[in-house]
Specification:
7 helices; mainly alpha; about 260 residues; about 75% helix; single chain; rod-shaped
Length: about 260
């Protein structure tokens, strides 16, 4: 093809048709430029197509992880609520208030106080994107901002759990000195490999309700659990926003 155009130009020069030669040369240049532009356009289209495929894969992976994260958070919320409700029920029986009718009923509430759960979300794919600096694969600036704020939110939840766990440990130490875990462990369904007897000491765990320190320790635990629960609800709101936006972006890419 190049030889063909070159021959035409040479014939025009030989025939002395200089003006036609220049017009033809300019036309040829224009054709070459157009060809280059078309090639670049095709290349850009291919690159954009590859990026769109990568983004769609990333959206699907993140969406799957965050749906699971929502399930996990709901389970953690449920366990935290159990601490709060059980703690308040115990506080309704402290001091001079009426004690539970049976030690069994009190032991059931006591066991439920030790129900804290850490939040371990599935962040593997998001961590990879953040560590590799590839979060920009998502076109939506809002989505990038929300995903960037997720990890700090998880750290707040970790701090909340640590506080609840510490308060449970303090309460546990108090019960170890003044109550009977053997009696408390008669209550509840646990998949243990051993069956414990009742305590050999003459003790009723309901006597714990008469101690002001026990009341204070239970209240501190309930407050810690309540703070943890508030953080969970805040994280849930962010999680819902992320899931909703992910689904919107996935749908947009599919259209």
């Amino acid at each position: 093809m190049i030889k063909f155009f070159r021959k035409i130009r040479q014939n025009l020069l030989n025939e002395g048709k200089t003006s036609k030669y220049f017009k033809y040369a300019i036309g040829e240049i224009i054709l070459v430029v157009i060809g280059i532009l078309i090639a670049l356009q095709i290349n850009n289209w291919n690159e954009n197509r590859k990026l769109n495929i990568q983004e769609q894969n990333a959206l699907n992976n993140i969406h799957r992880d965050f749906l699971k994260n929502r399930e996990i958070l709901e389970e953690v919320k449920t366990s935290t609520q159990l601490i709060m409700t059980s703690g308040v029920q115990i506080l309704n029986h402290t001091g001079n208030k009426k004690i539970p009718d049976t030690e069994h009923a009190f032991n059931d509430l006591l066991n439920k106080l030790f129900n804290s759960s850490p939040y371990y979300p599935q962040n593997g794919f998001l961590d990879d994107l953040l560590s590799s600096g590839k979060l920009s694969i998502f076109k939506s600036a809002e989505l990038r901002n929300l995903l960037s704020s997720w990890k700090p939110e998880v750290e707040i939840l970790e701090e909340g759990f640590i506080t609840v766990d510490k308060n449970e440990d303090i309460l546990n130490l108090y019960i170890l000195e003044r109550g009977s875990w053997l009696n408390a462990d008669q209550v509840g369904e646990y998949n243990r490999n051993v069956t414990f007897p009742i305590s050999g000491f003459k003790i009723d765990n309901r006597d714990l309700l008469k101690a002001l320190k026990f009341e204070n320790l239970v209240e501190n635990l309930v407050i810690a659990a309540d703070n943890y629960y508030s953080s969970q609800k805040k994280s849930e709101q962010l999680l819902d926003k992320i899931v909703t936006l992910l689904e919107s972006e996935i749908q947009k890419n599919n259209d």
